[in-house]
Design brief:
Elements lengths: L1 E6 L3 H13 L5 E5 L11 H5 L5 H4 L6 H4 L2 E5 L3 E5 L4 E4 L4 E9 L3 E3 L12 E3 L3 H10 L5 E5 L3 H12 L3 E6 L11 H13 L3 E4 L3 E7 L2 E10 L4 E3 L2 E4 L3 E3 L15 E2 L11 E3 L4 E5 L4 E3 L4 H15 L12 E6 L2 E7 L9 E8 L2 E8 L2 E8 L5 H10 L22 H12 L2
Helix pairs in contact: 1-8
């Protein structure tokens, strides 16, 4: 019997375990993961692929974190069945684990669309360390790579492949890259950086078929696009994104929508069962709705809230939103909240552009709803803070993009309160 059973060993699971130990020093914690590694930072797998980091340099916490916190681990083992009534899970090894409180921090599953020719040697996804290891084994035999997907994962693996000296073509369904987190002007700046690095872009297209290599149809030799165009390649990397890994919750009483439905305490509708991270639909304070926001910081904070509540310390999740700090091909990017608007009704946009520097702030009802900073991200943290705190920027919104914008631009009372809060930390 484990008092706390955590399925998932990434940001959410670790956040929960740490929060539990702050409250309960002795209750038995068990972490199960189908990956055999200590917790590592998934955003760093591209750096592993191009040789900039090893596993030790990717670790999210020191490897002795489990022993120091008296956490039992079942790494490299997959949970195959969840029994809510008996509070038990089954592992693929045949083992059964019982629990009092359960956290589902199962993350996401790579999206792989149906394409003719799947199953050939040389096709990979790119969401886990084993993906990078598998690609690494073949990189010496490869010269040309097709990356399917121009989102975060696609851009990350593309940069790593370019650093390895490979020829990369990116195929993206919509008409621009990073369309989920950037507006059109920002996407075009990223595309210019990609092309300068020698990357070939094929936007508004899909891969219809994966072709074999010469007389060997079992090995990747190219792809055929939706417009009939053919691209030669040695590897294909499917980097479209992830979908919530909800399989364990299916056929149970746990409520599902796109992901697992949770409340502000990260609790599901099933007593004693919690969820967080990429698999959970948690509160988004910008959209005022429960949504999937599959980013690392939200997973960790959601995990901490779940952990506190599992251990009996009632804690409410204040909400997260899409927020990313990136650097692709030397171009730093910060983006958060609403960037692509369904319509401009009711929204005000403040923006500036100068070469590779682009800044945009979206405002509604005098509150910041979204930001994009590219090239120069120096003051993006202050703007993000105003957005997160829901501050009305009425009296100083004309200064938000000024080079000298900072706390000195706040109204007197707001500046005083801010300084007092900072002084108390």
């Amino acid at each position: 019997m484990s008092k706390y059973l955590i399925i998932g060993n990434s940001a959410g699971g670790i956040g929960a375990a740490e929060a539990i130990r702050e409250v309960d020093k002795v209750g038995a914690i068990t972490i199960v993961s189908d990956e055999p590694y200590p917790a590592y930072s998934r955003p760093l797998i591209s750096e592993y692929l191009c040789g900039e980091r090893n596993l030790e340099g990717m670790l999210y916490r020191p490897s002795d974190m489990y022993s120091r916190n008296h956490i039992e681990t079942h790494l490299g083992k997959k949970v195959t069945k969840l029994h809510l009534e008996s509070k038990q899970v089954e592992l693929e090894t045949g083992e059964k684990l019982n629990w009092e409180k359960l956290l589902l921090a199962t993350g996401g599953t790579p999206i792989v669309p149906a394409m003719e020719g799947m199953g050939k040697r040389g096709i990979f996804t790119f969401t886990a360390l084993d993906d990078a290891k598998a690609i690494e084994k073949l990189k010496g035999q490869a010269r040309r790579v097709v990356v399917i997907g121009g989102g975060l994962i696609g851009m990350s693996v593309t940069e790593a492949l370019v650093k390895l000296g490979l020829e990369v073509s990116v195929v993206e369904l919509v008409d621009r890259v990073l369309s989920a987190i950037l507006d059109e002007p920002a996407s075009r700046l990223v595309e210019a950086a990609l092309k300068s690095a020698g990357v070939k872009l094929f936007t508004g297209k899909t891969v219809k078929k994966i072709l074999g290599r010469g007389s060997n149809e079992e090995v990747v030799g190219g792809v055929e696009l939706s417009d009939g165009q053919k691209l030669d390649c040695d590897l294909v990397i499917v980097a479209i994104g992830v979908s919530p890994r909800t399989q364990l919750a299916k056929d149970t009483a746990i409520k599902l929508n796109r992901g697992i439905v949770v409340d502000n305490y990260m609790s599901t509708n099933s007593p004693g069962v919690y969820a967080c991270g990429d698999v959970a639909e948690a509160y988004d304070y910008i959209y005022g709705a429960y949504r999937l926001t599959p980013i690392w910081p939200n997973a960790y904070m959601g995990g901490r809230v779940a952990g506190y509540n599992m251990a009996g310390k009632v804690t409410e999740y204040q909400g997260g939103t899409n927020a990313n700090s990136l650097k692709y091909f030397g171009l730093p990017i910060v983006t958060a909240g609403m960037v692509n608007l369904p319509s401009k009704d009711g929204y005000e946009i403040i923006s500036s552009a100068d070469g590779n520097i682009y800044k945009k702030i979206v405002i509604k009802d005098d509150r910041i709803m979204g930001i994009v900073f590219m090239g120069d991200i120096q003051r993006s943290g202050v703007i993000f803070g105003l957005m997160r705190e829901g501050v009305k920027v009425t009296s100083f919104k004309d200064n938000l993009l000024s080079e000298n914008f900072g706390i000195s631009c706040f109204p007197d009372e707001m500046r005083k309160n801010k300084l007092q809060r900072q002084g108390g930390k």
